[in-house]
Specification:
By secondary structure, this protein is α/β, with parallel strands linked by helices. It folds into 2 domains: about 120 residues, NAD(P)-binding Rossmann-like Domain (Rossmann fold); about 90 residues, Regulator of K+ conductance, C-terminal domain (Alpha-Beta Plaits, 2-Layer Sandwich), CATH 3.30.70. It has 5 helices and 11 strands; from the N terminus they run E-H-E-E-H-E-H-E-E-H-E-E-E-E-E-H. It has a 6-stranded parallel sheet with strand order 3-2-1-4-5-6, sandwiched between helices. A hairpin with a 6-residue loop joins strand 7 and strand 8. The chain starts with a strand and ends in a 5-residue tail after the last helix. It comes from Isoptericola halotolerans. This is Trk system potassium uptake protein TrkA.
Amino acid sequence: MRVVIAGAGSVGRSIASELLANDHDVVLVDKNPSAMRVSQVPDADWVLADACETSSLDGADVSSADVVVGATGDDKVNLVFSLLSKTEFAVPRTVARVNNPRNEWMFDESWGVDVAVSTPRIMTAMVEEAVSVGDLVRIFTFHQSGADILEVTLPEESPLVGLRVSDVVWPPDVVLACVVRGIRPFSPTPDDALEAGDELMLVTGQESDPDMLQRLVVDGPELG
């Protein structure tokens, strides 16, 4: 996968390092010469240019990117970069960093953003997760589809504890994507039994009913 990242600050370099470790091709774009710390991410391609200019993006060959990431500390730059990448270069997937939570409402498909990543939102979700065993916590929202990733930690008294995954009749538009048990995440099979303390990662569509899902955890499912 080829990824172009706008912003070669600490966030951009960290993302680049992770992607390179997973054998992806990475290009870092930044207009600030002091950000060109090539020795810190030597395996990336570096471009000294303005990510808000089409000529710069053309020079970085953004049209061949599978994903672009707006990782600068300036929300305006991340939005313009995403919009240009999507509309001018037809990049399939755009991810943008939200620095100011008050700007989060703009990071949607109208600005070419497929996935908006807000650090305050994620941190809030992590805090809520730590104090709300048994309650649904929204971890992430995909702006393009409107789908959510929800997390719920099964309390000991949950009727789901001890049931096989195949015995749970999930509400419409809900998919159990992952179970985290202790420190081990795994993709559940129909024969896996749920245990107290399991963290369930659920993907829900726009039509899903969070209240129905919450009741499932508290009151139990119909058995198939």
